[in-house]
Amino acid sequence: MNSSNVYLYNINIEQGVLSSIIFDSKQIDTLDVELSSKLFYFPFHVLVFETVMLLVDMNKPVNEEFIITYLQKQKKYDEDSFLEILSASPISSLNSYIEELADLAIKRELRALSLGINAQISNSEPTDRMLDSIETALLSLSKEQQGQGFLQINNILAEANKHIEQMEAKKDGLTGIDTGFTKLNVLTNGFNAGDLIILAARPSMGKTSLALNIILETAKAKNSVALLSLEMPREQIALRMLSISSGVPLQDIRSGKLSQAQKLSIKSANDLISTLDIVVDDTSVLTIRHIKSKLKRIVAKNNNIKLIVLDYLQLVDSNDNKDRHLQVSDISRGLKLIARELGVSIMALSQLNRSLENRADKRPMLSDLRESGAIEQDADTILFIYREDVYKKQEEKQKESELRKKGIDFQSNFKEDSISKAELIIGKQRNGPLGVVELEFIKQNASFREKEIIKSTVFEMGFR
């Protein structure tokens, strides 16, 4: 045996455990910890254990004769090794010894992982691929060690009561993070860890603007936020954040033609945003694997990250040749799994199908989600943005164009308000009611705010 494995197995414990379950196989059903072939280091011990479990499953006697017969048929019988097992003293307290075997098995897997890392380094594997595989392997080992077995309801209730106490102690009463919008918080209880939130709308409705509003407010509440912007460069994001926070029109900031008062407002906004823990990655081409790797690394560095925003879902790349709707299904499922794995809220922006514009009522519905019904299935919460003025403006322009083509001089009397009504529609919520939160959209700095008197219509109390 390799001397480096001396402390990675215990032949006496392995023989004792096998001897115990051979002489009394009923013990298997009474163990507090789960027996697995991974726990045994020696190949013949693995064979004997698997044979015992096969006999149990087949409801056949677990005894020396049946085990030997089965192993002989497989041409895997080793008489000397089997006699050593039978001669070992049965163990009275199996649980403790099985836990010891489980600990040794984890150490063996860690050693195998370290050897794999060395091999990847030698083969000049890409760094991001190496980190992704290492993180996945470690997380798998951690979950395996923690176990996912049954728990008594009294233990689960204890956890639930502890959660209730923690919520009572919180001043805002939210189970999740503060979105910055009071009524949205009331209806959703904030964005919760492990949830995938979809923020969807047609172009020009303000998806990115609302996302930046939520990012700023979440960060002001002392949470760290990460933004993956596949569409907008980081400089433009910074300019829009400055406009939202300062109230200075975005066009003025972009042109650089600012009054002294505007410069002071921007400086104050700059000083505030600089204190917030917001990180931005504006890599324009990312696959779900790249996203997972990046997020694992940033969360490992900063465990205070509570919200991750992706702008936007349909821009995530795919390396396979599947139909696009299947690719988007894989992406949405991947984002949900990442949210659960990292224990964070992920808000992904999404486009909607153009077909909704052919309806009289253009308010979005779940069926309007673009390219994949899987988005609806994977998301915990789906939010839609609707602004009637956007469609009114489009309709008036189209009407004017059509009449002029016919030689009719027509001038639209439509006036675009600087502040327009907006609806944030909760189209799906797995753990709460559906509803509509009325907001206002401020066009000069592309931001949303709550109306002084917020009216929310909960049109379906229930769970989705």
Describe this structure in words.
The protein has helices at residues 11-23, 43-57, 64-73, 79-87, 94-122, 127-146, 153-169, 182-188, 207-220, 234-246, 250-255, 260-274, 288-301, 324-342, 374-378, 388-405, and strands at 196-201, 224-229, 278-281, 305-311, 345-351, 381-386, 419-429, 434-442, 447-450, 456-460. It starts with 10 loop residues before the first helix and ends with a strand. A hairpin with a 4-residue loop joins β7 (419-429) and β8. It has 16 helices and ten strands. α1 packs across α5 (94-122). With 464 residues, the chain is α/β, with parallel strands linked by helices. It is elongated, with a radius of gyration of 30 Å.
Secondary structure elements and their pairing?
Elements: H1 11-23, H2 43-57, H3 64-73, H4 79-87, H5 94-122, H6 127-146, H7 153-169, H8 182-188, E1 196-201, H9 207-220, E2 224-229, H10 234-246, H11 250-255, H12 260-274, E3 278-281, H13 288-301, E4 305-311, H14 324-342, E5 345-351, H15 374-378, E6 381-386, H16 388-405, E7 419-429, E8 434-442, E9 447-450, E10 456-460
Parallel strand pairs: 1-5, 1-6, 2-3, 2-4, 4-5
Antiparallel strand pairs: 6-7, 7-8, 8-9, 8-10
Helix pairs in contact: 1-2, 1-4, 1-5, 2-3, 5-6, 6-13, 9-10, 10-12, 13-14
Q: How many helices in DSSP terms? A: 16
Which CATH class of the largest domain?
Answer: Alpha Beta
Protein structure class = alpha/beta
- Assign an overall shape: elongated
CATH architecture of the largest domain: 3-Layer(aba) Sandwich
Question: What are the secondary-structure elements, in order, as H or E?
Answer: HHHHHHHHEHEHHHEHEHEHEHEEEE
Number of domains: 2
- Sheet-strand content, in percent, reads 5-15%
Q: Give a short account of the largest sheet.
A: 10 strands, mixed
Look at the structure and name the CATH superfamily of the largest domain: P-loop containing nucleotide triphosphate hydrolases
Please report the distance between the alpha carbons of the first and last residues. Answer: 57 Å
User: Average pLDDT, to the nearest integer?
Assistant: 80
Low-confidence stretches: 453-464
**Helical content band:** 40-55%
CATH topology of the largest domain: Rossmann fold
